[in-house]
Task: inverse folding
């Protein structure tokens, strides 16, 4: 019995085979583009009717199914309404806003990923800097004033996205209190908006 | 001298005016660039089937570095597997099964090696990566380090392994990069 075992062991060694398995590389999509339609909620609904947003993010993996997206979002405001802005103890009327910009990062977590990695549902929680742009009105008396009436604030966002083969739909809620750092546009300016749209992602 | 200065002033004003009028076009010219894309037309290459088997002979090249007086040997299988004593008189076996690639060869001591890679079919080739690391925070810090191999079949009797290696990085507005592509072409042995 022992001799048999010995012979079998020698046979295995002579036909030795080394299988080297190279690790599977995670080919997650690193560039993300989002197009969405934004709807202001609450008090912000008096300031503009809607917005068209374009966002570009780049993704970095930090752990299994967890990523950090860093990027920016540019919004075109549709039908911005005039607001009154306080400067030097007088109220001036500013023309409605036409653009808004967000720069920030998001923490993304894959809530569900299919086994062949073509379908996933992710949640995005973000923090960033957002500003709503108002232009200085034309006129001689304004040329002399040092006036930059854009409203800057911090923004928090929470969204959910469903992606299939690199294309998908998303829905994002933004909380950006515009009156937090700037009281000249009045208290209770508005802070909430929701974005619904399409998203595409690819690798570079 | 005075006439030259006067002429220069009006020249400056003229340039200023034309810049203000045409700045969108000039901006587009500044960000657009000419590059040569896709020099080789790969559309006529044969499709790599989902299950593929083949054999080819690899070859050991001796490379002499001119200014350094160094001599070293190089071959495709040696580069990918890092094994020094491959037996080049025996053919290398390649098997593709859906998303897995197996490369088998023997070394001079009759020890058999099997390399297993995970990849996927893309268009008419089989693509696998051995390294793909990126950190992307645009403008702040971006790095990319990637090694990708694509397997093509230019005809029934040939197989090409294309290696694409990229290393690049950018911090604020300063960046540097290095990338190269190399093709390794082998003749497929006819099936017995």
Result:
């Amino acid at each position: 019995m022992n001799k048999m075992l010995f012979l079998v062991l020698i046979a295995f060694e002579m036909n030795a085979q080394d299988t080297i398995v190279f690790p599977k590389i995670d080919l997650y999509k690193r560039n993300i583009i989002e197009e969405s339609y934004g709807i202001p909620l609450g008090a912000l609904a008096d300031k503009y009717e809607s917005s068209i947003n374009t966002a570009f993010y780049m993704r970095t993996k930090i752990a299994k199914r967890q990523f950090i997206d860093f990027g920016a979002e540019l919004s075109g405001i549709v039908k911005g309404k005039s607001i009154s802005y306080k400067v030097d103890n007088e109220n001036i009327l500013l023309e409605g806003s036409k653009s808004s910009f967000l720069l920030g990062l998001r923490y993304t977590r894959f809530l569900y990923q299919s086994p062949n990695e073509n379908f996933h549902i992710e949640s995005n929680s973000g923090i960033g800097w957002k500003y709503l742009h108002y232009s200085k009105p034309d006129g001689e008396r304004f040329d002399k004033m040092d006036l930059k009436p854009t409203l800057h604030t911090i923004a928090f966002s929470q969204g959910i996205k469903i992606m299939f083969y690199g294309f998908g739909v998303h829905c994002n809620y933004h909380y950006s209190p515009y009156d937090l750092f700037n009281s000249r546009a009045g208290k209770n300016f508005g802070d909430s908006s929701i974005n619904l749209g399409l998203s595409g992602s690819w690798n570079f | 001298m005075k006439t030259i200065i006067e002429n220069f002033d009006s020249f400056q004003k003229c340039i200023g005016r034309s810049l203000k009028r045409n700045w969108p076009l000039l901006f587009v010219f500044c960000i657009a660039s000419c590059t040569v894309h896709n020099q080789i037309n790969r559309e006529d290459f044969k499709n790599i089937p989902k299950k593929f088997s083949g054999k080819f002979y690899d070859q050991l090249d001796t490379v002499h570095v001119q200014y350094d007086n160094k001599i070293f040997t190089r071959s495709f299988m040696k580069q990918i597997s890092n094994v020094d004593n491959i037996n080049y008189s025996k053919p290398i076996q390649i098997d593709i099964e859906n998303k897995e690639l197996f490369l088998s060869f023997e070394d001079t001591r009759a020890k058999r090696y099997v390399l297993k890679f995970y990849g996927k079919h893309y268009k008419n080739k089989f693509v696998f990566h051995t390294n793909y690391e990126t950190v992307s925070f645009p403008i702040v810090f971006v790095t990319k380090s990637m090694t990708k191999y694509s397997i093509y079949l230019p005809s029934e009797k040939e197989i090409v392994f294309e290696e694409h290696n990229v290393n690049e990085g950018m911090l604020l507005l300063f960046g540097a990069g290095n990338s190269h592509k190399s093709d390794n072409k082998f003749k497929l042995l006819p099936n017995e």
